[in-house]
Each structure stands twice: as C-alpha cells, then as structure tokens.
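Q: Can I see a sequence and its folded structure?
A: Here is a first one.
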Amino acid sequence: MSAPDDGRPDSAPPSPPSPPSPPSARPGRLGVGVVGAGRVGAVLGSALRAAGHTVVGASGVSEESRERIATLLPGVPHLEVTDVVERAEMVLLAVPDDALAEVVSGLAALGAWQPGQLVVHTSGRYGVAVLDPARKAGAIPVALHPAMTFTGTSLDLHRLEGCTFAVTAPAAVQPIGQALVVEVGGEPVIVAEEARGLYHAALAHGANHLVVLVAQAAQALAAAGVEQPGRALAPLLSAALDGATRAADVSDGPGAITALTGPVSRGDVGTVRTHLDALRALAAGTGATDVPASYTELSRGATSRALAAHRIDDRAARELLDALAPPPASHPDDPQEPR
C-alpha cells in the first residue's frame, strides 16, 4: 500500500478552493473514507462532510460513481479501495449487501484494517457480525442503516433530516453510532443484532411493495381511461399513508389498521366481488395476473386485521373471506358444457 498523503506541497496535488478543515482542526472530527460511492455512500459522505468531518477519499467502479464523487464530494480524490481504507480514520462501507462480507474479509486478508479504526456499514440486512474480520484486526464495528430511499443526488441530503437510522453496535460503541446519526440530521434507533433481518424485511415490505401497489393501481386506472393515474393517486395515497403511519405510533390501540377505509372496513361484500370481477378481466386482457392476486391477498389481510380491531363483525369477515376465496380450479377430466 502507498503511504498516506501527508499534505506537503511536493507530495499532493493542488488543493481545491476552500477545502474542508482537516480532521485535527476540530475535536471529534474524523477523516472519512467512502468505499462505494453509490447512491447511499456519496450522499452520506457529503452529509458527514457538512457536519465537519473530512472525506479523505472515495472509491467507485462505475462512471456514475465517479460523477457522484465529483458532484457530491468535490475535491475528494477517487482512489482504490485499499488506499481509501489506508487513509481513513472512519471507513464508510456503502456496498451492495451481497458484496459486503467479501469486501470486509478481502480487506482483512490484505491486512488493510487498522487498530482503532471506525468501520461503519450501511446495509439494512446485516448487523455488526459481518464486520468480524475487521474487528479482529482491532477496528471498531458499527452498522448504520438509513430507513430512506436514495436518488444519489443532493435532494437526498434534505431527506436525511428526521430520517430514522438503525444503529447496531457493541454497547460501548452505540453512542458513537448515535452521534454520527444525529450529526447528519437523523434520528437513531437501536436495533439488536438478531433483529436486523426482521427490521429490514419490514422496511422492504412496506416501501418496495408500496411501489408495486402503485404500479398495479396505476395500470388499472389507465385501463379505466384515466390519462394521468399518478396525479389521481397522489392525494389519496398520501392521505392514506399519513393516516396509517400516524396511527401506527399509537401504542394503546390497534395501530395502523384504524386508518383503513373502503369496502373491507365496511363489510361491503358486493363491492369486493365487483372489484375482483373487474381486476380478473383486466388480467385476462393484459396478462397482469399479479393485480387480482395482490388485491385478494391484501384484502384477506385487511379482513383479518379489521376483525381483530373490531371494525367488522364475525359474519362480515366470513362473507368477505368467502368472496375472496380462490375460484375452484377446473380439472382436465371435468365434463365440458355443450356449446
């Protein structure tokens, strides 16, 4: 590995105008190295820089990553991963989930990790166990995951304000993770190592499948002749989401299901049957079989939760579930009706 840049004029390129203060200029400031300048890494690096830390280098293999470094981290050198780790007091690992373990162990095999170095990854799936190869070399492991979608642009910096970050770390290190989150404007929440899988599944189920639902609803609206389905859906879905997320934080009630409206919450079986007929016709005409399937499965879930919350009674729930039962499958040996 090459030696860290000592900042002398004869060993470093000219500095950009108004560079960030060096880490030693303010107590508690760190030299941050970004490994993986994708949508998340470049944005968090920029946010940490704005909080007074110095980004000493960033890595990225794609042209898009290079552009993000130039745009969100101007003046920060684009380096090989080992050079980033060598220069950094804090390494921010923002690589894909499936690559994280290999990156950590590969750097350990090269002897890249340094005692006392802070190693932070941004994967929602993992806690700190994945950082064990770095920890065994004396590094300090922290897992920080922002519960937010990223565009990889400066717009994301504003979205960090009030964003929840899952913090997983050894008890003695948790305050460091929490402080980093607060510095970038987020709200830290401690998530246990063994709960990371459930935590991440919950976020993916909510956010990713919400996008799928919007896509399905927009397709149905377009088929019904609505020219701008997104515009039609935005106010309705925004109000529903706001009501559900607010209700989810009420600890002494049934939670988000109290915001449920529509035919299931009224026990309106006839309307549900009409919906199913229309959506099955859409599927037959377009091949969008996922739409009636999703409607059916989520309506069953809505029925069960509405019953548990005493929004509907037992009779309404039975009628709804009967209407939502899959149609009987035809058998090849069944006699065919005469034409």
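Q: Show me another, different protein.
A: A second, unrelated one:
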Amino acid sequence: MSTDTPSPVTVIGLGPMGRAMAGALLEAGHRVTLWNRTPSRADALVAAGALLALTPAAAVAASELTILSLTDYQAMYDILGPAVDDQEYVGVLAGSVIVNLSSDTPDASREAAEWAARHGASFVTGGVMVPAPAIGTPEAYVFYSGPTEVFDVHVPVLSRIGAPKYLGEDPGLAQLFYQAHLDVFLTALSSLLHATALVTAAGIPAAEFLPGALTTLTDIPAMIGDGRELARRLEAGEHPGELSTAQMMGATADHILRTSENSGVDVALPKAVRSHYERAIAAGHGAKDWTALYEVIKTRR
C-alpha cells in the first residue's frame, strides 16, 4: 500500500476519538466513509469531505479497512452483527480488515478475532494511548496486535492516527498493554484526587497543594530510573531494602489511612495500598525494599 495514493478507510463510531481519527485521515487525503448511530455527529466531517453511509454494512463495503472506535467490543457485535445479515451486502466482512480501537479486555479481543475470522475478516486489535486532541500529532501512539502480514500492509494508514507500536500476533496483547498502562494512569489520577481531598478537608485550597503535588508524579523517574533496572530486579526477585523497606513504607501507608479516616475522606484507596504492605510484611518481606510488594501482587502459577 502506497502513501502516494491514500486508500479508502471506513470509521465506525464518532465519539471524540472517532471524530479525531476520521479528521486526521481526511487531512491526509484518504477517502473516509463514516457510520454512527447518531448521524449528526458526522456533520462537520461530511462538510470536510467525508462520506456518510446509511448502514453499517454499506460503511464496511466502502473500504477494505474499517476502524472501530466504540465503547466496548459488545458494541462491535451490536453494529456489525446485523451487517453480516444485510441482504444487500451479503458476505460484506469477507476479505475486509477490522481494526478495533475500542477498549475491552484481552480475552474479549481474542474472542473478537475468532468471530471476525468466522466471517472471513482479518482482525487487528488496537489501544490508543493519547486523548482525542493529540490524534495525528507526533505525541500520538497506538499499541497494535494481530496478524503481522495484515498489520504491515496497513501501517501507512494507521500511522496517520499515531505512531504504531506493534506487539505481536496474539490479538490480546494490545489490550493487555493498553489496560496495564491505564492501570498506572487511573491509579495515579485517583491518588491525586484523594490527596487533594485530604488537604481540602483541612480547609486548604486545592490551588495551594496541586502544583507541588504534581512534582511527586513527575519525579518518579528520578527515584526509580528508566524502568530497566527495576524490571530486572522484579524478574530476579531482588529487593535489597537499602534505601527504604516495606516495613517503613507500610507505616506511612497506615498513617495515610488513619489521616483519611480522621478527615472523613474516602478510605478505599488507602486501604488497598496498606493491604499490599501488610501482606508483604506478613510474608516475611518487611526488611526488603518496597518492590517486595510485587511478590504478593503478582499471579501465583
């Protein structure tokens, strides 16, 4: 596939992310066909040159490549399931490539790949790692997994959305990495709000706390490096405890919980954090580094 002659692309799902992706593809010169349950969401894109299909089947039939930007994978079945039975477009999925950039679980991705294969379609999973305004910018990147030969053919198109990071053949890998990265992100956001609630419960304005608190997040790389040595230690089970221990940090986790209780702030998050330290200490890791929590968090096989 040559970027000199941009190929047709279909985008189904026009929330903020879907609209941003369709806009980036239009700007790159692709013929973009759209479908959305609420057709009016396509108005600005149609004005910019996109085509609006009347049915999902017609949208899929318009391009070899269909990109889905939906709430979850069930929405794919709800939309494309009837398309399979559309008498005007019999076998519409056969030979098509579905790139699902919706969020769900790795197992849901694997099941979807099997469903697509039963209908003659190739299936690639994706996880977009930036908000909608960043789509099409140098900061954008997307995790992908699925058949290598299918992914390779469509890299020029997918690159319009963001830098493609291919993880392998297993359809579940992209969602695994997507969910794991968001595990870090969502937990950090909750901790930031929880910490702000602690401070404001004492009558201190959020503006006096948040700017300084953000440096705690941005300084994490300075404390743990670029992740390579941390990864090596976790894989080797090395937790030296030279600078901090699970016992010491567990005491702090307990203090945060008690402060939350005394302030009337929600305690679910600090209880969860303290439980990691309690279990690590109970397992004999109290004198080891905080990384020993990994030993009680990871899967037992």
